[in-house]
Amino acid sequence: LLLIAVSLVLAALLAVATGNLSIPDRLNPWAPLDIDEPPNFLTEYKLARLAGDGARCRSLLAGADLRHAPIADRDNGGGCFFKDAVQFSGTGISYGGNLILTCRMAVAMAMFERHVLQPAAQAHFQQPVVGLQHFGSYACRNVYGRKTGRLSQHAWANAIDIAAFRLRDGRIVSVAQDWQGTGAGAQFLRQTRQGACRFFKVVLSPDYNAAHRDHFHFDLARYSVCR
Length: 227
Ligand SMILES: [Zn+2]
Prior knowledge:
With 227 residues, the chain is an alpha+beta fold. Helix content is 32%, strand content 24%. The protein has six helices and eleven strands. Strands 6, 7, 8, 9, 10 and 11 form a six-stranded mixed β-sheet that branches. A hairpin with a 3-residue loop joins β4 (85-90) and β5 (94-102). α4 (103-125) packs antiparallel against α6 (184-196). The longest helix is centred in the middle third of the chain and has 23 residues, at 103-125. Zinc ion binds at residues 154, 159, 161, 217.
C-alpha cells in the first residue's frame, strides 16, 4: 500500500513538473513566484530559489512595476560585494532615494509591503503607508559595525534597516518612539514585525537587543531569526 501511495505521489509530481497536470501556480513549486499572491508554505522556497536565477528575479521586478534601475555586479574588497542587485527606489511608497538591494530583497520588500505593511496600516490607522524612513541597506561592515567579527548581511546588500513609516495623513510611526507602549502605533509595529517573518529570514526588532531599539533589521540570510 505504501508503495502504491509513493508511486501515486511521484506520478502526480511528474505530471505537474511536465505540465500534464495543471494546478494553481501558488501551489506549484516549479511555478515562478507571484508578488501579488498571498504568501503560503511555498513562498520561502520560491524566494530562496531566486538567489540562483538573477534573470528571473529581474523579470519579476519588471512585471511588478517596482521602481528600480539595474546596477552592475561589484566586488568592493574585504569580502564585501553585491551581485544580482538593483537600485531600488520603492513601489507605491517612497523610500526617500535609491537603495542598493539584492533583487531578491527587493522582491521580498514588495511582498512585505503588499501583504503585511499596508493591511496592518489599514487595520490600525484606516489609511495607507506612503513613505518609509531607513538607515540604509548596502554597507561594507561587520555585524553591529564592530572592528572584528563576521560580516553583516549589509555587506552583500542583502539587508535593510527601517526606522519609521509615514502614513498618508503625515503621521510618523517610528520604532524608537512607538514600539514601547500599547497604542495603535505599538500594535501596528508589532503586527508588522511579526508579518515580516513570513518574507525575510532574519527580522530583528527592539525585542532582540538594544542595538535594534530604533529600527527593524530585515535580511535574507540562510538561518532564521524572528524577534
Ligand atoms: Zn541591519
